[in-house]
Amino acid sequence: xxxxCVLVISCVWWGGVVADQASVTLQDNGFDGVLIAIxxxxxxxxxxxxxxxxxxTRASPTLFTATKKxxxxxxxNILVPKTWTNxxxxxxxxxxxxxxxxxxxxxxxxxxxxxxxxxxGGCGEYGRFIHLTPEYVVDNMEQIFGxxxxxxxxxxxxxxxxxxxxxxxxxxxxxxxxxDGVLQGTSAKSIELRDSPKPILVLSMFxxxxxxx
Length: 213
Known about the structure:
Elements: E1 25-27, E2 30-32, E3 34-38, H1 46-66, E4 72-73, E5 75-81, E6 102-104, E7 116-118, E8 129-132, H2 134-139, H3 142-145, H4 148-161, E9 175-177, E10 183-185, E11 205-211
Parallel strand pairs: 2-4, 3-5, 3-6, 5-11, 6-8
Antiparallel strand pairs: 1-2, 7-8, 9-10
Helix pairs in contact: 1-4
């Protein structure tokens, strides 16, 4: 069963000591501890926070469907730069930009506003983070990159489950010859996910806090 997403927002200044943030956990089908961090160089823009909430609210039921009711986003922290003063934020104890699962940062010169994941490991291994530009967050650019909820779930599969792109990327052929000498098309390999909870209701919760970095 699918229910409406609920947002819970609590805001105070950061004033704690930075510590290693616990990894994202999946309990009773819900991902907790997902950290979205805004780079300190990004100019203050309330649309970024509003759109982050909207994007992940849309992505949560999409993830729920894509994982056959096994997972959804339940608790997401938004880490805001200390220089952002038009608001009050939660005390960000234990949160840091370097530990973020998703970063909002200036464009990579080679990729522009394309959403992408930093993943250097093998298939099935965790990635480092998802990179989104402030321009992408504000405008979504769905006419270029497609539905934002599908983009986020696609990138989440990269960093959470180490799933490679199911299409040929730049510099790689769209076909290959397998070990049996059979020509195959480039595609994503089916793997058993490390997260396998029972189905549960879809719910999204957000908190916001200041960036200690």
